[in-house]
Specification:
single chain, 194 residues, mainly alpha, 9 helices, elongated, transcription regulation
C-alpha cells in the first residue's frame, strides 16, 4: 500500500534505516520501496538522482542533526563539562543506547567510502575538533585535548561496532559511562546513561 508523503524529509528516516540494515550496495530498490511504501516513480520524484541522491540526503540529515545537537554545543557552550555531558547523553539517545549503528561509520567502512568521502571525513573531523574545544574549556590541557577527543570518538564508534557484533547494547552504555568518568573526572559527577 502506497503511503501519502508530502515532504522528501518524511522519507529520509526510513531510507536511513534501510541503509543501516543493508549498507549502500545491499539497499536494493525492493528494500527501499518495502520500507518506505513508495513506488519507484514516487521515489524518483523525490530523488531524481536515485539511490546515490537518497544516501547523500540521508547523510546530510544526519550531519545536520549532529551539527545542531552535538557539534555546535560542544563548540559554543561556555561550560565545557556540561557540553561534554550533553554530548554523551545525546549520543546515547541518538544511537538508542547502542542499538542503532552509525550510518556514517557504515559508509566509512563500505565500498562507497570514496563516493561519500567528504561527508564522512567532515563528520568525524568536526566531532573530534568540537570535542577537543569543549575539553579545553573543561580544563584539560590544550596539548592533550585533540588526542583525548580522538580517543573518545574512537571509543564511541568502536562501542557501536562491538555492541552490534556481540548483540549486547550494554557495551555501548558501559563505554559512555567510562568516557564520562575519563573526560569529566573532577567536573561534578558522572552521566547516568538511562
Amino acid at each position: 500500500m502506497a503511503r501519502t508523503v508530502s515532504e522528501r524529509a518524511d522519507i529520509l528516516p526510513l531510507l536511513g534505516e534501510v541503509f543501516r540494515e543493508h549498507g549502500f550496495e545491499g539497499a536494493s530498490l525492493a528494500h527501499i520501496t518495502a520500507r518506505t511504501g513508495l513506488g519507484k516513480g514516487s521515489l524518483y520524484h523525490f530523488f531524481p538522482g536515485g539511490k546515490e541522491e537518497m544516501a547523500a540526503a540521508v547523510l546530510a540529515e544526519i550531519d545536520l542533526w549532529f551539527e545542531t545537537n552535538v557539534f555546535a554545543p560542544l563548540r559554543t557552550e561556555e561550560d565545557g563539562a556540561a557540553a561534554i555531558r550533553d554530548m554523551l547523553a545525546r549520543t546515547d539517545a541518538y544511537f538508542r543506547s547502542g542499538r542503532r549503528v552509525c550510518l556514517v561509520g557504515v559508509f566509512a567502512l563500505g565500498e562507497v567510502r570514496d563516493r561519500f568521502s567528504q561527508a564522512v571525513q567532515s563528520y568525524f573531523a568536526r566531532w573530534r575538533e568540537a570535542l577537543a574545544a569543549a575539553l579545553i574549556r573543561a580544563g584539560h590541557p590544550a596539548a592533550a585535548a585533540g588526542e583525548e577527543a580522538e580517543d573518545a570518538v574512537l571509543a564511541i564508534q568502536g562501542a557501536l561496532v562491538l555492541a552490534r557484533a556481540l548483540d549486547d547494547a550494554a557495551v555501548f552504555t558501559r563505554t559512555l559511562a567510562r568516557l564520562d568518568r575519563r573526560l569529566l573526572q573532577g567536573f561534578g559527577g558522572t552521566l547516568d546513561p538511562h
